[in-house]
Amino acid sequence: MGLRIDEATFLERAISRFGARYDYSQMTYKSYRTPIKIRCVEHPVREVVITPERHLQTTGGCKYCLRNYRNQTLERVLRMECESSELPAPLLPRAPQEPPVAGQKSKAV
Ligand SMILES: [Zn+2]
Predict the structure, then answer these.
(1) CA 81, 86, 89 angle in degrees (round to 5)?
(2) What residues pair up with 36 in beta bridges, in sequence order?
(3) pLDDT at position 97, please?
(4) Would you give the DSSP letter of residue 36?
(5) How far is it between the farthest Cα atoms of the chain?
(6) Is residue 89 part of a domain?
(7) 65 alpha carbon to ligand 1 midpoint, in Å?
(8) 16 Cα–ligand 1 center, Å
């Protein structure tokens, strides 16, 4: 039962999904469900510890990539919203200042 994914199969899938985004040279592959240590090539400051299974199901495990991915998605949504309501804000014509009301007629003479 269950599907056995060996290291070669995992690497093949990972590379077809992420290309050269992650560095797998430091990982010790034991099984599909045993966490491995990999590195994001773009953000090598932090090792990514993730199971091969999760790696293939998510954006890969790099928090920074995930954040970028979310930002991009958010930006796209915001841009679409902007474009759909791209009316210039109406300029309010400034009302001419009224001169102060002259004199009060209610003063008893
Ligand atoms: Zn990354």
Answers:
(1) 120
(2) 50
(3) 72
(4) E
(5) 109
(6) no
(7) 4
(8) 17
Ligand 1 centroid distance, CA of 21 (Å):
8
In angstroms, what is the span from residue 107 Cα to ligand 1's centroid?
80
Distance from the CA of 27 to the center of ligand 1, in angstroms? Answer: 16
pTM exceeds 0.90: no
Overall average pLDDT of the 3-12 stretch = 92
Mean pLDDT over all residues of the chain?
86
85 lies in some domain? no
Edge-first strand order for the sheet with 36-40 is 22-23, 36-40, 47-50
| pLDDT tens-digit readout, 58-72 | 999 999 999 988 999
- Cα separation, 23 vs 11, in Å, equals 10
Q: Is 93 within the bounds of a domain?
A: no
What domain count does the chain have? 1
Report how far ligand 1's centroid is from the alpha carbon of 93 (Å). Answer: 50
Residue 47 is part of which domain span? 7-79
Cα(66) to centroid(ligand 1), Å = 7
Evaluate whether residue 44 is within a structural domain. Answer: yes
